[in-house]
Structures are given as structure tokens and as C-alpha cells.
Amino acid sequence: MKKIYFILGPCPASKKVLKTGGKKLKEFRNEEFSRLLKSLEKKLLKLLNAQKNSRVIFLASSGTGAMQGVMDNFLDKNTSALIVNGGGFGARFTQIANQKNLHINQYKIDKNEKFNFKSIIKTDALFINSCETSTGRLYKLKKLGNFCQKNDTLFIVDAISSFLCDEIDMKKQNIDALLISSNKGLALSPGLSMAGPDVIFIFTPSSFAIIDDNVVFPNPGGPYNRTWSRLVFLILDASINTFNFSTNLS
Predict the structure, then answer these.
(1) What is the set of domains in the chain, with CATH numbers?
(2) How far apart, in whole angstroms, are the C-alpha atoms of residue 129 and residue 120?
(3) pLDDT by residue (tens digit) across 63-88?
């Protein structure tokens, strides 16, 4: 009997992904692994229709680690932010910001309350979940992105539950930084999160420290001298290569 999950995650993996997951892990401090990550970055940016010169930062963490990472890098005590809190995952953004004593405003929405765009105020950064998983609320990213563009506000979107499920287009929706994870639309194992920033920046979440930007963005062909979720990278490669890319990725 074939089991079908009617839950938020994990998602059923393909036979190819399951087969790849049973293979022996490869060494990662070499050019071969560096080329793999460069290839995955290029394909992910294509799927996201990211702005020119965007980069992907791979994190060996859950999606919450990526949420913390963007908080650490886009905000400090001299900046302000608005967090749209429509449920459990909007509340998680708020919780992370409060733990760091950051200056935030919160637009809190009850489950059955209609979204009021007049509550979106001008600020340094707007944080939102593209889909609030705990309630099923899907936000109008294009309208919010247009607001941010007109008001010189960074638009930071948690698309962990939306990527490959709902429309996510960084150019069309004017998204400055986007968070995705391996265990939702990509239908892989958890343990890998990705952030696609329009502007290159360095993650320094409290769980680890990056002291050199070459650790995150090494020289072409150079090794990635970090301990990675290697198995998740391999199954990500197996999964993403089944997608139909209509244009040349070179």
C-alpha cells in the first residue's frame, strides 16, 4: 500500500531522490563539490527569477536558521522593521527580533481578519511569510513588493512553504531577500536552508560566525571549507535536474 502524507512536511520524495540518498557521501573540500554548489546556485536563481548578480547562501540549518540569519544581517539597533504576524511563523520572526532587542513594529492579523494594506508603514525593512502555514493565508507579494520599492524598503520574504507551490518571482515581486528550505516544495530531507539576496551579505547567526566572505563565496574553483549537509546537496542535485529549464543556464 502506498502511503500519502496529508501534512505540511515531510513531503514524499521521488524514487530518484531516495536512490541518491542511499549513496556514499563524497568529499566536500575539493573542486568537484564547489562546482556542484555553483551549479545548484545557478539553477535555484533561475527558478526564482532572481535579480542580476544575486547569490544563494546555503545554510546547514532549518528554515528558522535562515530567518535568524536575515534578521542578523539586515537589521541592527539603528534600523527599524515591520513584521507581518499572521500566525505561528510570523510570530517566529517577531520572537527572533525580540530576542535580539531589535526595533520592530508588528502588524498582527487574526486568523479570520482581512488584510489591511493601510497597516503597512514605511520602514527600513518589511518581513513577511509568503504563506502563513499555520493559517493557510497567502499574501499578495507583488502589491507589497511594489510598496517596498516605492518607499525604499527592503522586502524580505520567507517562502519556505511557497517555493515551487505558489508563484515566487523575485523580479516581478521586487523581493530583496528570499528564504527557502529543502523539505517543502523541493520534497527533500530537512537540514538545508537557502537565502537568495539581491545584495551580497554575510550571515552571522548566533549559532556560528563567518569571519571571511571567501568562506561563503569562495574564489571560482576553490574549495568550500565548511562542514555541509552533503547528503541534502546530493539529493537536491538529483531533484533539481528533473526540472525543465526553458533557457540556457550558462
Answers:
(1) 24-240 (3.40.640.10)
(2) 14
(3) 888 898 888 888 888 899 999 999 99
